[in-house]
Amino acid sequence: MKPLSWAALLGLAVILVFLLSIRLGSVGLTTGEVFAALRGEGDLNIQRIIVDLRAPRAAMAILVGGGLSLAGAVFQALLRNPLAEPYILGISGGAATGAVLAIAMGLTASLSWALPAAAFAGALLAIVLVLRVAATADNRVDVRVLLLAGVVVGAFFAACISFVLSISDARTVRSAVLWMMGSLAGSDWTTVVMVTLYTLPAAIALVGLARPLNLLAIGEETAGYLGANVERVKRVAYVLASLLTAAGVAATGVIGFVGLIVPHGVRLLVGSDYRVLLPLSFLAGAVFLTLADVVARTVMSPAEVPIGVITAFVGVPLFLLLLRRSMGARHGAGIES
Amino acid sequence: MPTESTNPADPTRSAALEATELTVQYPHAPEPALDSVTLVVPRGTFYAVLGPNGSGKSTLLRALLGMVPHAGGRAHVFGRLVSDWDRRALAREAGVVTQSESMAFPITVRDLVAMGRYPYLGALQSETLADREAISEAMRLCDLESLEQRFLSTLSGGEIQRTRVARALAQEPNVLMLDEPTASLDVRHEMEILELLRASADRGMTIFLITHHLDLAARFADRMLLLDRGKVAAEGRPRDVLQEETLQHVYGWPISVSDDPATGVPRMTPLSTALQPAPERAADSS
Predict the structure, then answer these.
(1) Under an 8 A CB cutoff, do A272 and B100 touch?
(2) Residue A12 predicted with pLDDT over 90
(3) Is pLDDT above 60 for A153?
C-alpha cells in the first residue's frame, strides 16, 4: 500500500475513533442523541456531556497521542535507537515533579491553569538540565551522555516526587498519584486550545526536518558529509520534540510508551523514511490513544482505569521484545566494524 | 616561460584539496593527531594516504573537510577555505565513504543510495529526473541494479561497501574520499572497487583513498602520502615514497621492496624480525 493510502485510511480512522469516543461513556446515549447534540439540538444535559465533556476529551486524546508518537519517532532518529522514548530522557519526570509540587502546595484548587503550567515548567527544566549535562564537551551533543543524563535527571525528579509526597497529606498523595498515572478526564476546550497551540507548529516544523532526520539515522558523521547541519538539526529537533512531549504531559499526566508503540507499528507498515513515518505516526498515535481512552473508560465502567495503565500493558511487552531483539542480532544493522 | 595558465587566482586551476601546516589536537591527547601536515591533491589525481594505525589518516580526511577543529594551519577545498564552505555546497563537491556506519533502522539499497541526493534537494521536494538519473548511474557503476530493492541487512560485506560507494557517487562529487573502503573485502571485491576508482580518476574525478594495502596503492595511485604519528614521512609518486628505509622506519618492521614482475610496480614484502629464512620443512617432502 502507498503512503498516501495509509494517510487517507488513518485520517478516516481518526474521525471514526473520535465519533466512537464521544458515543461511548458511562452515560448511555444513542447514536441519534449524539448526532443531535453535535448539531446543537435535543436535551441540554446530553449536549453538555457531548460538547463540553466527551468532545474535548476525544480531541485531547488525538492531540496528545499524535504528539507523543511524533516525539517518540523523532527521539528514535536522534538517538539512533528504536527503543528511545520521551520518558527515557527524563522529561516526564520533570513534568510530574512540577505537577506534584503544584498539587501539594494546593495551587490546583484555586488556579485551574496551575497544574499544566507547573508541569510544563518542570518539563522544560528537565530538557535544559539534560541538554546542559550532555552538551558540555566541545559544544556537541553526545548521544550516550544524553541517554545517561536523561536517566539520571529522571531519577533525580523521581526522588523529588517521593520527598514531596512523603511530607504531604493522604488526599494530596491520592490526587498526585492519580495524575501521575495519566488521565484525559480533566480535558476542557481551554486546555485543548493550549495543547493545540504547542502541538501543531512543533509537529509541522518536525515534519519539515524529516530529510535530515533520515540522514541522522544512518550516522552523524555520514549525515555531515551528505550536507546536513548536524548539530543544528539535532538541537532544533530535540527541543521541538521535547516541547511536544511537555505539552501532552502537562495536559494529561504521564502516559508512557505511546512514543514507542506507535512508531514501531508504523515502521512495520511503511518503513523508516521519516517523510512518511512522521505524519503517519501522528495520525496513528491519535487513533491509538483515543482507542486506549475508550478502553480505559468502558472496560470497568463506571470506574475508569488510568490510561497510562492501558498503554503500559501494551508497551512494556513490546519494549521487552525489542530489547531482546536488539541484544541479539542487531536488527537491520548494516555495517559495524 | 610556462605556456599553461599560471594565474594563481584562476579558480579552475586550484587544487582539489590542499592543506597548509594543518594541525589537529584532540582534547586530553598528549600529542597532536595531525602535526603540521602540508599536501596538495591536484584535480583528477588518484591520491593514496598510507601509514600505520593511529598515524592520523582518518583525522586528515576529517580535517580536510572541516569535520574536526583545526588547532593550526589551513585547509582548502577547490581553492576555498573549508570553513567558508556551506555544508550542502561542500557535499556537492566532496563525497565521503567513512570507515563504518551502522543503520539504526532497516533500509533498502535504493533508499540508501538516494540519500546521496540530499545536498541537491529541498526539504520536501521530491526527486527530479536529474536525481533519478544520478542514482541509477551510481548504482550501475557499482553493479547494484539487481539489488535495488534488497534490505541492507541481507547483503554481504562487499555489497554493502559498494552501496556506500554508490551513495557517495550519487552526490556527483568532484572529489571522492574513502577511508579503507576495502578493509573487509576479498580480492575480487577489492579489485572491483579499486578499478572503479581508477576509472573515475581517469574521467577527471579526484580520488583520495586511505588504505593499508601498500601494493595496491602503488599500483593504482598517481601520488601518495605516508603519514607517521601525525607527520608527513614522505609524499610524492609511489616509487619515490615506497623506499625500504622509509617504510621500515615508519612501520617499525623490516620490509623488502622489489619490482613486481606481473605489474612492474613496487611490491612490499614484510620480512621476519628475526631476519631468518623460513624453516625447512623436510618432513613434508615424503
Answers:
(1) no
(2) yes
(3) yes
Searching chain B, which residue's CA lies closest to the CA of residue A230? B87
pLDDT tens, B83-123?
Answer: 999 999 999 999 999 998 877 788 999 999 999 999 999 77
Q: What is the Cα–Cα distance from B85 to B119, expressed in whole angstroms?
A: 13
| Chain A residues touching B77 at Cβ < 8 A | none
Q: Do B90 and A227 touch (CB under 8 A)?
A: yes
- Please give the domain boundaries of chain A with CATH numbers for all domains: 3-327 (1.10.3470.10)
Total domains in chain B come to 1
DSSP string over A101-113: HHHHTTHHHH-TT
Distances (CA, A) of A311 to A93, A292, A316, A318, B125: 17, 7, 8, 11, 36
What is the b/e burial string over A68-83, where b = at least 16 CB atoms within 10 angstroms of the residue's CB? bbbbbbbbbbbbbbbb
- A217: nearest CB among B94, B95, B104: B104
Residue B200: CATH number of its domain: 3.40.50.300
End-to-end CA distance of chain A, in Å? 36
- Contact list in B for residue A208 (CB cut-off 8 A) is 123-124
**What is the C-alpha end-to-end distance of chain B, expressed in Å?**
71
Across the interface, whether the CB atoms of A227 and B119 are under 8 A apart is answered: yes
Residue A149: which of A211, A88, A205 has the closest Cα? A88
Has residue B1 been placed in a domain?
no
Q: Residue A148's pLDDT is what?
A: 80
- The parent domain of residue B175 ranges over 12-278
In this model, does residue A211 exceed pLDDT 80? yes
Chain B: residue whose CA lies nearest to A84: B104
ipTM above 0.85, yes or no: yes
| B238 cis-preceded (ω within 30 degrees of 0) | no
In a domain, B285, yes or no: no
Q: Which residues of A touch B111 (CB under 8 A)?
A: 271, 273
Distance CA(B231)–CA(B11), nearest Å, equals 29
